Amino acid sequence: MSVLLEDGANRLEAADDTLTVVGSVDFEGAAALAEAGRHWLEGRGHGERVAFDLQGVDRVSSAAISVLLEWLRQARQASVEVVDVRLSAPLASLTEVAELDSLLPAASPAAASV
């Protein structure tokens, strides 16, 4: 596992095919988080399969959802297949209320994870 970004409130890690976000993502750190994830996605090969794990985001955060949607857009542009998105319970609730859950591949709250 390698740490791609750590700014006190947020930590972005990459391990194999998964980007993992931990912390309290806010709009102050969202741009740096999105950029670090973009660089990681650029290193993936055409058709490679990846996952995004946001189970460590500890509160409802529209900034975290914005970062996730940006990564999904970038992955699509790079022809990288996102096969799983794992969300914390607060983020899963937010995506459901905002009716964004249908945009996420295999979106699953932390409580449903095994």
TrEMBL record:
Lineage, top ranks: Bacteria, Pseudomonadati, Pseudomonadota, Gammaproteobacteria, Oceanospirillales
InterPro entries reported for this sequence: MlaB-like_STAS (IPR058548), STAS_dom (IPR002645), STAS_dom_sf (IPR036513)
Protein name: Phospholipid transport system transporter-binding protein
Domain of life: Bacteria
Residue ranges of domain STAS in the record: 19-114
